């Protein structure tokens, strides 16, 4: 699935919300794995100093040779940073605590907002034959998140089905608008994804109703339920589809992958979901 406006290039998606604990990393890991099941070649870029996506995809801290810190601040080429995972067609640009100083170090850099964009340029990606790049953002509207938004074609916003969920969204939307005006006019909203949904809970239902009334079609049809398998899987360093293939969490992320693939043209070589 290449971007029709940029033939042969992968579709780059920032997974962003400045709130922590809303399901960004869970979505990065499990949407990636579900897309891979559909035949896509996917790169996850871990842009959070906590490195949870790296751990969740099976790369312990001591196995992270080069990281997204090196990619952004040491000009280490993409091919030296990308590592395979134990899953075919799923690649990782890992992160570790080195990245926690990046925001301060980036301030003085003239190209501070464009470093990830430049690192993911076409020539650097040649040879990886990627369909999708998912960028797992840190929980802040920091320069790291700005780098992700500048480098991406679209942004996927996980929204926890809790009270105050919609609060803070306007700040993210403002940041997206600023990025459009300054650096990336083509940046689209891929969708708002309701996460940790509990159908028996009236609050969850209310949050969904509010989100659909306020945001309309921007909200993904797929809703991710609260599912204990999703929270257990990272401690086994597995995506949920590998940890418990038949779980509600697996089904939900597979449905999200199908919804995502339906919106984007699919490459010939890809297996239909
Ligand atoms: P973020 O990256 O936005 O900080 P995470 O994806 O790390 O959020 O999720 C926060 C916590 O909630 C983690 O412990 C994760 O395992 C758990 N979690 C995320 N999504 C779900 C879900 N749908 N059901 C149950 N637990 C979830
Ligand atoms: Mg996270």
UniProtKB/TrEMBL annotation:
Residues 12-189 form the AAA domain. It holds the Pfam family AAA_31. Involved in chromosome partition. Localize to both poles of the predivisional cell following completion of DNA replication. It comes from Neotabrizicola shimadae. Gene3D superfamilies: P-loop containing nucleotide triphosphate hydrolases (3.40.50.300). This is Chromosome partitioning protein ParA.
